Amino acid sequence: MQSRRPAPGCIFHTDRGAQYASEAYRRALQEAGLRGSMSLPGNPYHNAQAESFMKTLKVEDIYIGGYKTFADVAVGLPKFIEEVYNAKCLYSALGYRSPNEFEDQLVQQAA
User: Fold this and answer.
1) Among the listed residues 4, 29, 34, 33, the one whose alpha carbon sits nearest the alpha carbon of residue 19
2) d(Cα 31, Cα 81) in Å, to the nearest integer?
3) Same domain flag for 24 and 59
4) Which of 25, 72, 83, 92 has CB 3.0 to 4.6 Å from 67, enough for a Cys bridge?
5) Total domains in the fold of the chain
């Protein structure tokens, strides 16, 4: 999201898709101060969290969202991620906290 400002050196992890290995993409990461990371070949476990997120996104928003145009997606998708997924949904892997609560706790511990 544009409202988030990850610290320089933050790791951006992806699968091994060709688009993520492209020179243009790697350059964009570098310009943003991010470090690229890719799954090992044939290892689906590195992306388990991302795959779980995509399933939740599809089931809880995309399939029922009624998006008709790209503009609808551009408005609705960030809203779902920020207002529902990150703020209201509780996850067992995070100690039954929302991602926002979990992140806030990490920031407080690091301070």
Assistant:
1) 29
2) 25
3) no
4) 72
5) 2
Q: What is the mean pLDDT of residues 78-87?
A: 93
Supply 60's token pair. 């809880």
Strands (E), 1-111: 11-14, 35-38
What is residue 13's three-state secondary structure? strand
Where in 34-93 does DSSP place strands (E)?
35-38
**Residue 104 has what pLDDT?**
93
98: tokens are: 């929302």
Residue 72 to residue 36: CA distance in whole angstroms: 30
Q: How many CA atoms lie within 13 A of 106 on its CB side?
A: 9
Q: Does the model's pTM come out above 0.85?
A: no
7: containing domain: 1-38
**Are 13 and 54 part of one and the same domain?**
no
Mean pLDDT of 35-49: 80
